[in-house]
Each structure stands twice: as structure tokens, then as C-alpha cells.
Specification:
The structure is a homotrimer of 674-residue chains.
Chain A lengths: L9 E5 L7 H14 L3 E4 L4 H4 L9 H12 L3 E5 L7 H6 L26 H18 L5 E5 L11 H15 L2 H7 L33 H29 L5 E2 L1 E2 L8 H5 L6 E3 L8 H14 L5 E5 L18 H11 L2 E6 L26 H20 L8 E4 L2 H9 L9 H14 L4 E4 L10 E4 L9 H10 L3 E5 L21 H4 L1 E8 L6 E5 L9 E13 L3 E6 L8 E8 L2 E6 L1 E3 L1 H14 L12 E8 L2 E8 L5 E12 L5 E8 L4 E5 L1
Parallel strand pairs in A: 1-2, 1-9, 2-3, 3-4, 4-5, 6-7, 7-8, 8-9, 10-11, 10-12, 12-13, 13-19
Antiparallel strand pairs in A: 14-16, 15-16, 15-17, 16-20, 17-18, 18-19, 21-22, 22-25, 23-24, 23-25
Helix pairs in contact in A: 5-8, 8-13, 10-14, 11-12, 14-17
Amino acid sequence: MINEKLPKIWYGGDYNPEQWDKATWDEDTRMFKLAGIDVATLNVFSWAKNQPDEDTYNFEWLDEQINRLYNNGIYTCLATSTGAHPAWMARKYPDVLRVDFHGRKRKFGGRHNSCPNSPTYRKYSERIAEKLAERYKDHPAVLIWHVSNEYGGYCYCDQCEAAFRQWVNARYGTIESVNKAWNTSFWGHTFYDWEDIVLPNGLSEEGEGEVSAFQGISLDYRRFMSDSLLECYKLERDAIKKHAPNIPVTTNLMGFFPQLDYFKWAKEMDVASWDNYPGIDTPPSFTSMTHDLMRGLKSGQPFMLMEQTPSQQNWQAYNALKRPNVMRLWSYQAVAHGADTVMFFQLRRSIGACEKYHGAVIEHVGHEHTRVFREVAQVGKELQQLSDHILDSRAQAKVAIVYDWENRWAIDLSSGPSVALNYVDEVHKYYDALYQLNIPVDMISVEEDVSSYDIVIAPVLYMVKPGFAKKIESFVENGGTFVTTFFSGIVNENDLVTLGGYPGELRSLLGIWAEEIDALAPDKKNAIVMKENLGALSGSYECGLLFDLIHSEGAEVVAEYGADFYKGMPVVTVNRFGKGKAWYVASSPDKKFLQGFVKNLCDDKGLSPLLQVPEGVEVTERVKDGQACVFVLNHRGEDVQLDLEDSVFTNLLTKGKVTGKISLSKNDVLILAH
Amino acid sequence: MINEKLPKIWYGGDYNPEQWDKATWDEDTRMFKLAGIDVATLNVFSWAKNQPDEDTYNFEWLDEQINRLYNNGIYTCLATSTGAHPAWMARKYPDVLRVDFHGRKRKFGGRHNSCPNSPTYRKYSERIAEKLAERYKDHPAVLIWHVSNEYGGYCYCDQCEAAFRQWVNARYGTIESVNKAWNTSFWGHTFYDWEDIVLPNGLSEEGEGEVSAFQGISLDYRRFMSDSLLECYKLERDAIKKHAPNIPVTTNLMGFFPQLDYFKWAKEMDVASWDNYPGIDTPPSFTSMTHDLMRGLKSGQPFMLMEQTPSQQNWQAYNALKRPNVMRLWSYQAVAHGADTVMFFQLRRSIGACEKYHGAVIEHVGHEHTRVFREVAQVGKELQQLSDHILDSRAQAKVAIVYDWENRWAIDLSSGPSVALNYVDEVHKYYDALYQLNIPVDMISVEEDVSSYDIVIAPVLYMVKPGFAKKIESFVENGGTFVTTFFSGIVNENDLVTLGGYPGELRSLLGIWAEEIDALAPDKKNAIVMKENLGALSGSYECGLLFDLIHSEGAEVVAEYGADFYKGMPVVTVNRFGKGKAWYVASSPDKKFLQGFVKNLCDDKGLSPLLQVPEGVEVTERVKDGQACVFVLNHRGEDVQLDLEDSVFTNLLTKGKVTGKISLSKNDVLILAH
Amino acid sequence: MINEKLPKIWYGGDYNPEQWDKATWDEDTRMFKLAGIDVATLNVFSWAKNQPDEDTYNFEWLDEQINRLYNNGIYTCLATSTGAHPAWMARKYPDVLRVDFHGRKRKFGGRHNSCPNSPTYRKYSERIAEKLAERYKDHPAVLIWHVSNEYGGYCYCDQCEAAFRQWVNARYGTIESVNKAWNTSFWGHTFYDWEDIVLPNGLSEEGEGEVSAFQGISLDYRRFMSDSLLECYKLERDAIKKHAPNIPVTTNLMGFFPQLDYFKWAKEMDVASWDNYPGIDTPPSFTSMTHDLMRGLKSGQPFMLMEQTPSQQNWQAYNALKRPNVMRLWSYQAVAHGADTVMFFQLRRSIGACEKYHGAVIEHVGHEHTRVFREVAQVGKELQQLSDHILDSRAQAKVAIVYDWENRWAIDLSSGPSVALNYVDEVHKYYDALYQLNIPVDMISVEEDVSSYDIVIAPVLYMVKPGFAKKIESFVENGGTFVTTFFSGIVNENDLVTLGGYPGELRSLLGIWAEEIDALAPDKKNAIVMKENLGALSGSYECGLLFDLIHSEGAEVVAEYGADFYKGMPVVTVNRFGKGKAWYVASSPDKKFLQGFVKNLCDDKGLSPLLQVPEGVEVTERVKDGQACVFVLNHRGEDVQLDLEDSVFTNLLTKGKVTGKISLSKNDVLILAH
């Protein structure tokens, strides 16, 4: 349980009373109660209010808000307000201002705008976190600390450059090791002195679209920037823990946000939390995958849905309303995948500036007689009923998909073989195939223990880090099923190629050699031709993007290319290795192939769907103390008929019995217990 | 009359004798006479020639040109030459050079290149204007002063930043008022000191595509930049007026140019003038709308067509020739909408630099035996015949369309709800519907007195400024018809939302509440379903872009949405208010709906087309002393048949009678008097 | 012969032993021998290794490599290593770092990164070239010097600005001449002082897409930059020649690379060499045209194919493999057009950095059992057989196509008439028509002697330099056929229009006057309607892009426009002038017209294809001592049947006789002697 003070699924969101007057506060409280809201995230962007100059701190307003809300039964998720520095700080201490990718010093403006290596920023952000901790460490309202906000954004200033040299020195020890790791003998970039190293940006090694001339230095700069921002987080967290060691600390993450290695971050967080903003056309399986990734950050521990919009966003191209009941559907989708909170950005819509067209529980009209508010209040009421059954329960998956931020960086930074290669999309293709079957999946890091899984899938595992290949070999030897794809096993953690033949360290496990890698424009396709029927697979399928030209070195060839000069060469292989199997898919297949392929893998391991439901209906399960809670989510866009056959469930919302043939409305949800 | 020295429609254009030798001057004069040219705009870009250093001024060359032309019957529109600073000024006084949106200091180059807050630029531009005024104040050739040229371009330098702080201080008085107006409690951007304020650009609050994090500061920077450039204009104008108080002063504007609030500018100009450069695909109704806007700048007073090309431009992607007679057609289109001059850029084509492929009266071949010259000469001859009837006559419209630059800025700066929303396009849709009916329209500012109109249409009036709502309520109470659309009445002049329910200050007038605003991709459409037949409207029409979800609060629902979850909700409403009606169109309709809708409005008010003509034929009227002059313009791209029935007109070009069935050739024009 | 030390077609490529260890070197040597490789380009990017600080030079490693290779029968193409400066130099002497188009000072990174006017760069690049020359001047392995690498990239720093002023001064002598040449009276840009001149870039006269406000200054900056980089080359070359006067010197060029005037460069090179990187969709005729251009740089002298990839590239969007036998086909295509070397980038694929996915003779797998290696070895073996017949032989063409870099710059820099106008594409259209007929073509500069040609074609010869018109008049007077097109003869070498009527200096030769130039969007077409059948031409063809509206002034009208208001005006004319003919094609025709048109020209001159072959088969010839070697290249993508009829050839690869009907496989090649 995140905090036992509030032993239910928390319901609330970001709240900015500092933008409003007292009359509005009273109205807010009334409406929060109507909506079943029990937690408010305060102080996210109030640094300027809290600290009007170097020496003055004003927290009285915050005391008043926390107390006022608490007196009305509403707890506080307490932010540290360091997501945007105050204007005076930018004016007096320009070191807090970032330099952008093109080398331009920024001026005061925006948010997430501080140089992470700025001495001024670090000093004052740590100090205000400590002052807040001292002040509120014993306040009964405070459930959790919310450090800063949506960390992100790289800086390219001179102080970052100096800090980067130190970071590199600490990592490699000698300049010779740096030269080797970054292969600087290429293009004569050999460094003789630490001072020779300049940071990689648009003025040095990097170009548009994130491609770098030297992947080594660019990879390390991403690691360094992720670490630099994490260092800022840790400074605040430690300042808080000094005074309030027992209150959990988090910061809100952003799913597949590319800039930070969240697996590394999550180790420093008591609970993972994230902000979920799908667009109207985002596939539900992509959202589910992201929830699973956020759950995977802390190895399955429940996470917080820290933000979602009650209806509209403002920053998409076309900001569609969430259709009726979709907010509810997506809220339960989060819970179904392991969230123990449902929280919104924002409780009241601001009157001006760039988020005034971002939806809120309380809209500009200011009263509760809106569709949005009614839907919010319904969910609030339901969550009060549900929490006992769900809180702290766990998803249980036998299939894991590997995702790795550093692998993604290396792929994106590399020049060739195809600009169309998108790592996250390839991961999603495999996730989606499992999702369509309603097979639970864990999204895991390359460091995760895999021994409890039946199947581990690592799409486009281009970078193989030390120890990973051995771990997977051991997993397969012991009976596991491993799947990887084209363009895997190519490089080590510094993006240096593993010589001797692709897929490098995975070669003996997979029993193949990839001699060449063809890359064609997206409209050029090849075929996956099954050598014989195999479970759900038969005949021919389409593939594209990249095409490894592989030779079996012991693996069984399951399918061959159907066209081009490599017609007849293997495209899908399986290698028996110890008690298990290692599969290789040498191109990017169509959806139909992947569904059959994944079904075969699951059948082979005796894994079956949680429920048999029509397409477009998602089913997940969370288990606590042996008791399963089943979520049935209708994403199909129309009413559907389900047949539960002889199973008898209790509908946790209605408390009624559910069995046999039933109907589930468009966008509706069933939450069932046996 | 702009200047009684030349009591006819002026005919001429920009002329740069400083680029040519004496032999060419003589040839020019001969050809100008052949073409009926009687005015030349001189000295537009001659600052470097006029003033080779800080202290030296040379105007002898200009004396010679003005005199030479005058001796040949050609008057002068005298520019002040400040549209581009001299190279020596940029070198010695870098404060004249602008800093761009990305913070880069520019070097000498281009035109319209001076920082409007540069002390050097202001000093020398004022000084040269004064010197010119002293020298030419009594010259009989000088008809009008042409200050600088096509003002535009923002600057983001430190001196602009300092001046902006002063401007903000003058507007708001206290830093607290600034914080309130800009809602800086959002994201903790509160200012404690005037020095905290930095200008909004790509290094601070603004991003690509003009979106700002803080609309308040960005709106004010646009106001400030428009004012700063206007201040430059006023310095020159006042310097001129000191010596030549009776010669009119203008500067050439650019239609819907986004950067400057021309309604504010026009107050400082004796006559509006503008440069008309439609492309080959520009709808004729868009050009007409722009003429009407330029006429509206000074409440209907005749304006100057200061520039148009005789044939080609150079800066479009594909610079098509003006087809035969199109230059003539478009010249009369300007006159038909209120222009009392027809002037070209340029009289002679330059030999080098970026406008060498811009058309001219005298082409590179240098003689008069060209299609372009022959067409120019024909119009010159005709204008000599026509002027008596047209000069100083006025268009008379009973329909007004509201256009507001600050509203446009606020829409463009806002983040959400849709990037596809283009204010000018929405205005044009309504204008075009009236244009197709040949109903005259005035384009007016929000400050204009509306009491003389029957119908006022304000598409997407997102920003409602103080007093506007009351004025419109009074207009409708007294019997007027008002129309507005989706996304109107949302914010005040600082882009702060009017709380309590959209459309804010217009809500009681319109009798509706807009609960939500949906935004969908451009290919996603809904339907406007008429509840019953209404005049020219029946059945169903298409709508898109934004979709207000409105509730009637007294308004009659005329049409409902035909699809999506708001099917059946109102999409077109009319509210009876006093003796008049207030219409609301909650989405962006197709052309067919708008033509029927507008026809109904006009029928209701007894407004009918000036003439019944086939589609593609434009008809306008100018009236002087009760005498109407009717323009019939064939934009259809082929010959058409007209039926004037029993009306009997005089063709002012042929002096013949015109009645009954007649033919009008492709691109031809009739100018008729009763 | 490039160097008599190795009297065969050289075979090898770029090799970077400094990236590898000794074990790899031994393996490399073994494999080079297997592949028939006899030349390695060394030291391309080893400056940092050669010179770790200002005063220290280490060439022992290079001695070892050159010797080791030589001892294994492999010669050296010795680079000077100055294509990328060392990191220490950038740190200590920032003047070596460039400033980019937007005025941003770059940091250390990339390659081709030195300011060409940097005193530091010039000092150290000259010095290292001299040291290398001293050391290796007598080494028997050194075949040729390879100065720097792929020169290119402009700089916009203050030292370039100062040098530009001197360059301008040297060219024009007085500031008045500069003002005249650049037409600075336009927009009042008159310079009074040399210091007034600022370099043209994104902060001054130039904008996105290379358009300039002043073509004069921008043209001269391109000339100056081309000269500045050439000066760097010459400094190194002269340092080498001082010690090694008899070893040829080159630098590798890049075909139609836009930035440098290669005709001027080639005068300073002993042999032309270039890097050929067609994409999978590049038309074979474009590659052939580029080979012919590279051959034309030195008036037909054999050139070096310095780089091509054995299979893949890394920097295209989708890096397709070269299909089986395509590397061989394209290698012989180079030889067929005059190359006396076949060389690769690269011999061994690097382990890291941005070219790790660029193909190599030795792939990451490290052994010879790859498709790529086998194909390389086959070509290596064949070249050993062939060299006697081909080396030093010459192509012999009676048709020349004019190409001029300064003309291209002027077209690209000009604003109007159409952004779709691409000079190289228009040149290629005419080249391709000749290519389809298998008529040999020389690509020549405007300075080339044309008296030996039958036909000279100068598409879009917008800029006519002094003397060119007279030379062509004399050529036609003496019986030659000249062809030019729309938008020709417009300006002089400063991009100042030749007044008095287009096509200016070419007008009397062509017997036409172009009154206007229409420009339409690419989807808008007109028709070329033949007045009567003319050889291979009859009926109607499509044309587009630009449309000159021409009048005959003596020329015979062969075809007329078929549509628009200039229907019936001439579109193709021919003027008899002395004993010859001058053709004008007033718009951009379709492929079908051009094939007929070019066929007529050739028939008229008695020029016929080298062989009659099916479409998609290329035939060229090289002649030495009266002996012809015929190349037949099957680009068609499938097997073809040829009929050589009674001709009897010797197949130089198989030594067999070839006559009558024969088959040629997809991507296969015949090399035949009579």
C-alpha cells in the first residue's frame, strides 16, 4: 500500500489553488466532495510563490491549503515545486538557464527549464525540498512526495560539458579507454586530453533527427543527462528523507519518454507514477503496454496513475474530447494493469496560459452540471466501493517482453540501415499480438530475473549488454522460450559491433548467422512462406522494413523468404537449446503472422487467454492473497456479447452474479471476482 | 480626393531611376506617356544614395527626377527611403540591426531590416523624412508622402526588451497587474521586478508555429511590436507634417498581413494604401475581401492600390503570368471596391538582384511592343475617361463582417483545440457566401459603429474586447441580425477566459451555453441536419474542424448535429433578442450551407443582389452624389451571357447604352451608370 | 597511365589499419590477396595519430603499413590526412572551427570541418603534407597522392569575411565596380567602404533553400568558397610537388556536388578521381552522365573511381544491398566511361561510429565466405585479365553537353520564375535521350573547345559568360548543331540581365525573341504540337515547368504550343546560321519528344548507336591506338537477347568469339574487342 493513511485507490489530481481566490476554493471543496476526490497534488509549480527571493520562503498559503483540504477529507500529494525555476533566479543566476541543442542560451520561460548541472538550481531545489520536508514531515494530510514534475530536457551548456568530462572520467578512468569505447580512431577523433572532449550536439557530432557521427559519445551523453537529472531528483529526495524517512517519494514519469532511463530512475523511487495521455487514435494495446512498462519499472509493484485528462488535451494537433465513458474505461484500464491511484491533470482548469484548453474536473463553466464532471463523480463513487478488492494486488504474467532505453538510444543514434526502424513500434507489434490473445505480459528490463517466465521476447535487441546473453542461454537451457528478431545482437553497450558474425553473442543460442541486412523503403515488401503448417501458421505472410539474410547453423528453418534474391533463405528459425527453444524472426512481419506466431508460443507453453472474448475486448487480472479480480474492458467501439459459459463471477461494482451470456456496452467495464 | 492636384484615378507605380542611366530615363518618360502614366513613386529604396554617411545628404538626383517627370506631366508619390538602412549605418551603429526570433543578431542585408526601437534608426529616419519635407514641401509634383515601405518584421534585441518593459509598465502600471493579466501564477512565472520580464521568443516562451506558453505576454509583444513600428512611422509622419501639413501621408500596407494591427495604424494615415499580390489560384472573393478590409481601415474612405504586378511575380513558388486581360480585370476589381488609384510595382524591371523576375510595365526588352505594355496602356487610356464618375465615390453595404488582428493573434498563439483553425479562412467562408450573392460587405473593426448595418457577422470572435458585447446587444435589440460561430466569446483582451460558461459575454445575447468543444482531424466530418426547411436551407450539410456542444438557453434550435455522440444536439441556433436575432453556428459548415444561410439572412432583411448574374461574375457598386456606378467583373474564365432585363445603363468606357441580353468576354469588365 | 608502377586497372580502396590490431592486419593482407586487391588508400583520417600536438609527428605506424602492404604486393594511394583536424587543434586554435550558415561557431566534431581560411589549418595542413612528401617521396609503394578527402562545406566566420573582402577587391578593383556588378542600387545596398561588405548567409542576404536577395554577392561567395577550399588543396599539392614532383596528385570529387566548381579544380589535379554512390533507384543514365562529367573535367583523360561501396551504404534513408552482380555491373560502367581504377570505400568495415553500417570488402564477420567478398574477388580476377586492353583508352564522342557550376549557382540563387526548376535534371533529360540511343556524349565546360563536335547541347544555359556566344556562333557557322532551351541567355556572369530581349547574346544565333516566361505548377502541362512530321517526331507531346513565349526572328517554327493563351506560338524552332543549325526548345518536354528530337539531330549528323540493343542495355566504347573495346551493360533487371548480326567480337573476359544472337544475363556485362 502506498500509504496506509488512505487505504483505497486514491482519486484526485493536480490542483492549483494559487491561481484562484477564496470563493473559488470553497466551491472547489464542495465539488471535490461531490466527485469522491480524496487526494490533491499541490505545489507543483509554486516555487515563485514559495520563494520570492534568495532568502525568503512563504509557505503559509500552502499550510492553509493543505489544512483546508484535509479538514474536508482530502489528502495531499505534496510536490516540491521545482519543475520551473522562479524568474528572479534566472535573472540573477543565469547558470540555471539551459543551452539548447543548437548552442543557444535560453532565457527565462517555459518549464522544465533548469540546467541539471547548475550549482544554483541544485542548491535552491535541494534547499526548498528540505524546507518543505521540515515543515510537513508530520502533517497527517501528506500521503506522498511528488518531486519536481515530468523530468526531461537536455542541456548543452559549458557547465554540463565540464560535468560530462568528469562523468566520462569516472566511467572510463583513462583517456585511452574513452578512445577505445568511442572508437575515436575513426575520422581521427582521438582525444589526448580530457579537455579535448566536447559535448555532442548540433554544433559538434550530432545532426537533425538525433543521428550522431559518434554513437559512443552520444550514448554516453544521454546516460549522463539521464543521470544528471536523476541526481537532481536524488538531491531533493535525500533532503526529504532526512526529515520524513517514512513518507514515500516519487516523481511522475511519462511512459516511453525517450530521454531518461526509467529503469535506473525507478530504483530511486518508492513507487512508480506516470502521466497517461493517449490520443484519440492511440491503440488501446499501446496504452496497456505502457502501463505494463511502468509497472515493470519496479518489478510488478503497483504504480500510480498520476495524471490523465478528464476529457481534452491542448497540445495535440486535434484535441478531441474523450467520448462518453472513455475516461472511465481508460481509468480502469490503468487499474487493470496495476495502478493503485486514478488521478487527473487537472482538478480546475486555469483561466489563462497554454493549458487553458486542457480538460479538468471543474471546467471553465465552474459548476458540476457537465458531462465531464458527472463521469468523474461516477468513477469516484465506484472507486470507493472497489478499493478493498484491488489495492496491492498484482498482475501475474508468464510472458515477458524486454525493453531497454539504451538499446533505443543506440538504434536511434545510428546511421543506417533504415530511417523507418522504430524500436518502440517493433516492441509494440509483439505486445499487441499477445494483447489480442489476452495473455498477460510483463514489460521488463534487461536486468530483470527471467527465471519465472515461460516466454521472453526481446524484439530488435540490437545492443546486448554484458551478462544478458548468458542469462538468456541459461533461461532457454532450463526450458524457456526466447524470441528475438532481425537487427539483434549487433553491438555491445558502447555501440561497438560484436565481431565474428551477427547476431554476435546471441549467435550460438539462436543457431544462425546473419550474413547481410537488407533495408528497403516501407512500400517494398517480402513474404514469409511457411515451410509447412505449424499450429496457427500456414501459407504466406507479409514482411518488411529490414531483411536479415540468415544461414542456419543448427536452427530449424520454419519459414523462408518468398521473393527477391534471397527467396528461399530462412526468415523464421527455431533452435533447440537445452530444454528450451530460441526463435529468430529475420524481418518485420505483418499482424496476422504475429498473432499466429505468438499463439503457437503460448500453446506450446500451455498459456491460454484469461477469458474467451470478442476482438476489441481486453481482459486482465490482478491477484491478491490468491483472490483474482478480473477486468473486462470493451474498447471495441460498440456493444459486445460475452459468453462466460459456466463461470460464475461477482460483479464488484453491482455486487450481482455474472454468468453465461451477457452484454457489455460500448466503452463499458466489468470488474469481476470469482 | 487624395490630392486635388491630380483629380483622377492615379495611374503609375514604383520607379527606380537611380538604377538606370540618362538614356534610359528619356526612354522611360516616352513610354510612361504612351501608357497614360501620371504618377511615379520615387525614392523608396534610396537611403544609401541620399545619405552616404552620417552628415552628408544628396538630393540633387531626386530634384532632377521629380522635375524631369513633372515636366513630362508625371506627378510624384514621394517615399522617404527608410525601408532599408544604408550599409554604413549597419557597420557603424549595429543597434540598427535586428535580432531574430531565435536570438541571432543579424548582419547587414535584406530590407525592412531595422530594429524599430533602435535609437540610431529612429534618429536618422526621422531626420531624412524632415529633410525631404523641407526640400519638397512646396514642390507642385508631390501628391502624397509614402513613408518607408511595407512595414513589418519583429525584432527581439535587448533594446526592444528594455522598451517592452516600459511599454508593459505604461499599460499595466504595477507588476501585480501584469502578473494578473498574463496569469503568471500558472507554472510559477510570477514576476517580482520589471527586470524579470524577458521578451517572448524562441528562447523563452514561444515555439515553432507561433504557439506560446503564455498568450498574455506574447499578445502584448505583438501589440508592442506593432506599436513600435507604428512609432517609427509616426516619427517620420510628424517630421513631414511639420513642414508640409497639407500633403497627405500614407504607407503601403499588405492586406491581411498578420504582424501589424492595421486598424490602429490607419488612424495615423491620411489615406489607406496597399499592395495587392494575388496568386494564380487566389479566389477572386479573397481579393475582394482584402480590398474591403483595406477600405474598412478608414471606415469606407477610398484607398490607394499602391502596388500590383503588371504580370508576373518572383517570390511565389510558380510565378505564372497574368493571363490576357487579367491585369485589367484585377485593376478594376480594386477600383470597384473603393480604390482611387491603380499603381504598379514596378515601372521598369531591374537588371539584377532578387526582383529581376518581377514583372514591370517596361520589361527587360525595353520597348513598348509587348503584351504587358499594351495592356497597361489600354488601362491607362480608360482611366483617363473614367475618373470623373468614380473618384471619391463610396461603396454602400448593409452587411458588415468583423475582423480583428488581436483576435487572430490570440487564436494563433493558443495551444489547442485545433491546429487546423485558421481565423482568416473562417472569415473568408462567410465573406465568400455573400460575395457569391453579390451582396456588398464592409469589413469592419470591433470598434466600428454598427448601427447603420442590417447584418453583422463575426466569425470565430474568440476574443471579446470591453464594450463589444454591449454594443452588439444594443444593435440586435434595435433590430439587427448578428451571427457568430463556434469558439467565440471565450476570452477577454488578455486571452483570459471569461468564466461561467462559453460563449462568455455573448451568452445571453445568443441564448446558448457551449459546454464542450470537440476538435477532430480535417477528414472527420459531422452533419448539420435542418430541423425543418428554412428558406434556402433544407436537409443536411457537412461541417467540420471544431464542434461546440451547445445547449439552448432560450435560443431556437434550427439544426442539429447528425452524428457522433452529440447527434441531436444543436448546431445552428437563433435567439430573438429585442427586435433582432442572434445566430450561432457551432461548427464550420460547408459552402452550400453557408450560401443558403446567408441568403436567408439577406432575404430576411430585404437585401438583394445588385444584379442577377451567372456564377463567377462579380458585381459591385460605388455611389457619389446619389449616382451609382456599377462594376461587372467576369472572373469565370470563359465568356458569359448576362440579362440586364429592362435596366438601361450607360457603359462608361464605350459611352454606349447597355440593356437586355448581353455577352461579357472572359476576363472582361463592364462599368455602368444608370 | 596514372602511374607506370602499376600498369593495370587499379583495384582496392580505403583502408584504415589504425582502427585495428596486428592480428587483423595479417588477416586483411591474406584476404586482399584473395580478392586481387593491389592498391590501398591509407592515411585518410589519421591526422590525430600522425600529429598528437603542435610539434610532434609520428609516421612510424604509416611506414609499417605501407611497407607491410608493399611486401604483399599492394601499392599505396597516400592520403594527407587533412580531411578532419585533430581535437587538440580545435581546442587550442579555435580559428580552425567553422561558423555555419546561421552564424553559429561550431565545436570539434564531424569531418570536413576546418575553416578554409583558417591560418592554423592552412599552416598545419601544408606542413603535414610536406612532411609526408619528404618521407615518402621515394617510396616505391606510393602510386598517387590523395589530398584531404571530399572537399566541401562552406564557412561563414569573420576570417572568411575578411578574406572575402580581399577576394572581391582583387576581382573588381574598386567599390564602384562591386556596386555595379552586384546591382546594389537595388534596395539601397550601395557600399561606400570595403568594410561595409558582409558575407552572405542566413543572417544577411540569404534565406532557406539557397535563395539570395542579391545573386551577385552570393555567386561571388560561392566562387570565393570554392577558391578558398581549392587554395587549401593547392597548398598541400605544392608542398608535395616540391619534394615529389613526379608522383601524380589528386583529391576525390563527388560528381555533381553543388558547392565546388570542379572544372576549375581539375586544372590543379593531375588526374580526376571521384566517389560514386548511386542509390537503388538512381537511373543508370544518371550515373553514366556523372562518369562522363568527371571524365570531362580533364577533357577526356581517364579518371579514377576512387570510392564505391561493395554493397550497402549507411547514409541513405533505406540502405538496400547491392543486388547480386550489381557491384560488378557498376564497376564496369565506371570503366566503360573512362575510369582506370575500381576502388572501394572501404576494405574493412569499422567497428563503431557512423560508418559501421557502410558496406566493406571485409565485413564484420571477418572472413571471405560472404556473397560480397566473392563478388569482389571475381572482379579482382577479371581486372587482372583486362587491363592491357583498356588502360589509357579514350571515349570518343561527337556530341557534347554543356554543364556549368556557376550557371547552376545563379539559377538556384535566383528568386523566380519556378522553384521546380532543377538545372541538373534538365541536363539529365537531354543526356538520357542520347543514352537511350547509345550515342556517346562528352560532358564539357563552357570553356571547352567545341570545334571537334557535331552537336553541342546546352540545356538551360541561363548564364552566358564572356566569349561563349561567339564561340558557339562560330561553331554553328562552321556546320555545327547547337541546342539550347527555355530560360537561356538571360544573364551575364554576375547574374545581371542582358537587356534588349531574351535570350540575350544567343538571340541572333537562335533567330528568336522570348517575350515572356510563364511558370506553372508541376501538374500543369502544355503540348508541343509538331507543325509537320519531322523524322522521328510527329503529332503532339507534353511539356511543362517553364514556357517561353517566343517569336521567330528568322528561325523556322518546328512545333507550336497546343494550349493556353499562347497556343499557336512557337515552342520548338531551328535557325539556319552559316552552315549549321541552332535549335531552341522553349519548354521542358516529355521523354518521348526528347528521344525523337535527339534521334533527328543524330540522324542529321550521321551519328548512330554503337550497337543495336534492347532498351535497358547500355553500350559504350573506349579506343586506344585505333583499337576499340566495347562495353555492353545489362541494366534492364532481367536477361536479354542481343543480336550482333555479322559482327564478330572477342569476349575479353572469356577470350571466346561472340557473334549473332546471344543472351546476356540480368546485371551481366560483355567486354568485347573486334
